[in-house]
Amino acid sequence: MAKRYLILGLFLILSTQIKAQQYGLFNTKTLFDAFENPAQKAFVLDSSRKYASNFLLPYFGLNAANKGDANYSLRSYINDRVYRTSGIPIGDNARNQAYQSSNIYLFSFRIFKSYKDHQELGFSWQMRSDAFADYTNETLVAFDDFRRFNQNQDSPFNGNGYGQSYHQFSMNYRENIDKRLAFGVKLSLLSGITYNKIDITQSDIQFNNAAQQLTVGFQGTYKSNFLRAKELDANTLIPNFKNPGLSVGFGTTYTSKTGYFLMGSIKDLGFIRWNKSSHSIVVPDGEVIVNNLSPGKTLEKQFEDEFINRDQQKSFYSATNAKADFLISKRFEFYTPNFIVSKNLWNKGGDIALVNNFAYNEFSVSLSPIYNLNGFMMLGTQAKYQTPNFEFFLGSDNVLKSAAYHQQPTTPDQRYAGASVYMGVGIKFGYTVEHPQNSSYMPGVGDEIDKKGFFAKLFGIFKKK
Question: Which residues of 375-387 are buried (b: 16+ CB within 10 A; e: fewer)?
Answer without folding.
Answer: ebebbbbbebebe
